[in-house]
């Protein structure tokens, strides 16, 4: 996970620790999300970024943290599992919401955050500003998780090639004190 400060944030931890301790949530560690992250990394990232933004905007930070953490609480492989009810974008938020309700009581706001987090790919508009925060943060995290490790790899490969070039240039340079 690229956003590590969450573990040191006592306020955030006090809001989610009961959920984070649950096996149903820890199981998300075993599932790959956006190529380079696990579903648990992704969920924590969405929860913490949403919580941090919500704090600045005076939103319901409890709902942002908890529903953010639970927004992708599903276990099926979307590449191979298809549903008659609709697309993965439509179905998985509803499954996540049902699963989340088995772990904790959800407010209407928390339900809306979870069910509408795929807004854009699904048409029903979120009802609350907190739901807009989570859907936008979810998209940002998905891009960040999928793309930034690629950039890091490219940067590392470029810098190692550049050091080789520099090394070979310094070997081939005639020292200025030789005449
Ligand atoms: Fe999702
Ligand atoms: Fe997500």
TrEMBL record:
Any one Pfam family match given in the protein's UniProt record, by short name: HD
Sequence ranges assigned to domain HD in this UniProt record: 39-103
Residue ranges of the TM segments: none
Name of the featured protein: HD domain-containing protein
UniProt source species: Jeotgalibaca dankookensis
Organism lineage string: Bacteria, Bacillati, Bacillota, Bacilli, Lactobacillales
